[in-house]
Amino acid sequence: MITVTNVSLQFSDRKLFDDVNIKFIPGNCYGLIGANGAGKSTFLKILAGEIQPSTGNVSMGPDERLTTLSQNHYGFEDYTVLETVIMGHKRLYEIMKEKDAVYMKADFTDADGILAAELEGEFAELDGWEAEPQAAVMLQGLGISEDMHDKKMSELTEGLKVKVLLAQALFGKPDVLLLDEPTNGLDKQSIEWLEEFLIDFPNTVIVVSHDRHFLNKVCTHMADVDFSKIKLYVGNYDFWLESSQLASKLQGNVNAKKEEQIKELQAFIARFSANASKSKQATSRKKMLEKITLDDIQPSSRRYPFVGFTPDRDIGNDLLRVENISKTIDGKKILDNITFTLNKDDKVAFTSKNDIAITVLFKILMGEMEPDTGSFKWGVTTSQSYLPKDTTDEFLNESLTVVDWLRQFASAEENDNTFLRSFLGRMLFSGEDVLKEVSVLSGGEKVRCMLSKMMLSKSNVLVMDDPTNHLDLESITALNDGLIAFKGSILFGSHDHQFIQTIANRIIEISPNGVVDRAETTYDDFLDNKSVKEQIAALYATV
Ligand SMILES: Nc1ncnc2c1ncn2[C@@H]1O[C@H](COP(=O)(O)OP(=O)(O)OP(=O)(O)O)[C@@H](O)[C@H]1O
Ligand SMILES: [Mg+2]
To answer: Whose CA is nearest to atom 25 of ligand 1?
Structure first.
């Protein structure tokens, strides 16, 4: 159990948390939700003791252990994969190291013998003998095969490092498990494995995620960060969303009598419980839902940014020609003989079983990486604007304020404070927000900055690598609408089915053995098409 008492936190002009009181109880999985910049990551840091609140405190039961998902992907480069996972249980790892050191001593004394016996005792108590097999099983569940367990972390690609760090957080059954956007960067199978793991996990889980499907699957409660408070709701994400929409509807309808409002709430809960009745904890959840009163539900203060891209010129006849591009990374073939030609008006979703293939292709097309063989040519009338998956390199000059950061990309007519501030206002950076240093921005705020940069560029081709990563639902909707309305061309990769379905008019599957390319199709038709299915199966069968 973890208890938060009277916690407040103030950053310069803004009160992020105001007197938060909340208890997180074992057996529950709390989805910590809230708009980009609401304070979710900061709250997890307060819980983990990495940030001190301005007032109040956080306490746990005696001897309880808390783990977090490390955000520093390069923090364990000199350790082996298996060791990195076991390091998730700090005390156990220390004992293992101390034991090794004692047994290695050339002049092993009686005192050493006593120490060794003590260490062995504690080691056994912590299930030390099970540590390596348990870590190995976890790694395998996440798709990291046994031959990699003794490799150094430095030898792994970033995608694999993320999985090892996830196993580290989950290792050894912590009493409190804190996960900040754990599904980012994970493939589908690993997400499914994590979902099962969390559903069966007996202790306290607090997980930040913008992935609606994931939240619905694993969470028993929502903890919503809004109005500088954190409010607990029983139920999954969809229930929270619909009840908060109902709350704003009821609030808007001032003439409705209290009894009518209560009736409406009850009808809503009955409908929702009926839908949710297939889920595991259905009955107990139903009981909890029935206790909800009008005062328990609250409309949300989430806002929609304005996302609109206007190209400064039309694309001529040629958009992009790609011929025979191949690329091998760390001995693994990522792209093999990729050939396609894109035309004006194409909005192309690139799909692949291997996400890295799309990232590498985009990097090559944006001139950030050299292909091993092959070539590509953008049409002379095109101009490209790129949203990479990892935006770290875009914010290297950390001390720039948001408005000065954006000014770097503005034309002479648009680089004055008045214009930039009103532009940023529409992207939800209002008032003093624009004077924040970019180093403190949240994940979603950074993406909003990048979208602002892309809007200012007035390019006629947008290249976006998983743009909805990090964004809250309101920003995803705004971006989705903006891309549907965009008059230029788009090349993008995404995990969001609806996003692909509503934007793309062409789908290209990138396999390690070439492409399956369909123009004038929607994503659903592409997925349903028998001949497409066969072609894709054939391409992956020969890997
Ligand atoms: N040191 C700081 N000084 C001023 N503001 C800060 C500082 N650190 C964080 N912030 C601001 O606090 C807010 C909360 O940031 P946080 O990273 O917790 O958001 P989040 O809810 O995790 O958002 P996201 O969904 O985008 O990840 C943001 O507006 C951020 O810019
Ligand atoms: Mg965050």
So the answer is: 36
What is the spatial distance between Cα 134 and Cα 163, in angstroms, rounded to a whole number? 15
Question: 14 alpha carbon to ligand 1 midpoint, in Å?
Answer: 10
Tell me which of 440, 472, 476 to substitute to probe ligand 1's pocket, judged by most ligand atoms within 8 Å of the beta carbon.
440
Q: How far is the CA of 445 from the centre of ligand 1 (A)?
A: 8
Pocket test for ligand 1, best of 8, 11, 471 (most atoms within 8 A of CB): 11
Task: Give burial (CB, 10 Å; 0-12/13-18/19+) of 370.
Answer: exposed
Q: Which helix (H) or strand (E) holds 99?
A: helix 90-104
C-alpha 543/C-alpha 541 separation (Å) is: 6
Q: Give the chain's domains with CATH numbers.
A: 2-233 (3.40.50.300), 235-296 (no CATH), 318-541 (3.40.50.300)
Distance, in Å, from the CA atom of 148 to the CA atom of 473, rounded to the nearest integer, reads: 37
Nearest ligand 1 atom to the CA of 39 is: 18
Tell the residue nearest (CA) to atom 16 of ligand 1: 39
- Are the C-beta atoms of residues 70 and 165 closer than 8 Å to each other? yes
DSSP for 100-165, please give it.
Answer: HHHHH-SS--HHHHHHHHHHHHHHHHTTHHHHHHHHHHHHHHTT--GGGTTSBGGGS-HHHHHHHH
Q: Which atom of ligand 1 is nearest to the CA of 446?
A: 26
- 421: CA distance to ligand 2 center in Å? 24
* Residue 449 · residue 405 · CB < 8 Å: yes
Atom of ligand 1 nearest to the CA of 472: 25
List, chain by chain if needed, residues with CB within 6 Å of any ligand 1 atom: 11-12, 16, 34, 36-42, 436, 440-445, 470, 472
Q: What is the DSSP letter of 499?
A: H
The one-digit pLDDT tens for each residue of the chain (543 residues) are 999 999 999 987 789 999 999 999 999 999 999 999 999 999 999 999 999 999 999 999 999 999 999 888 889 999 999 999 999 999 999 999 999 999 998 888 999 999 999 999 999 999 999 999 999 999 999 999 999 999 999 998 888 999 999 999 999 999 999 999 999 888 888 999 999 999 999 999 999 999 888 999 999 999 999 999 999 988 888 888 888 888 888 877 777 777 777 787 777 777 776 665 455 555 666 666 677 777 777 778 888 999 999 999 999 989 999 999 999 987 888 999 999 999 999 999 999 988 889 999 999 999 999 999 999 999 999 999 999 998 989 999 889 999 999 999 999 999 999 999 999 999 999 889 999 999 999 999 999 999 999 999 999 999 999 999 899 989 999 999 999 999 999 999 998 888 999 999 999 999 988 899 999 999 999 999 999 999 999 998 875
Shortest-distance Cα residue to atom 13 of ligand 1: 37
- As a whole number of angstroms, the distance between CA 195 and CA 189 comes to 10
d(CA 364, CA 358): 10
State the maximum Cα–Cα separation within the chain, in Å, rounded to a whole number. Answer: 86
Return the DSSP state at 414: G
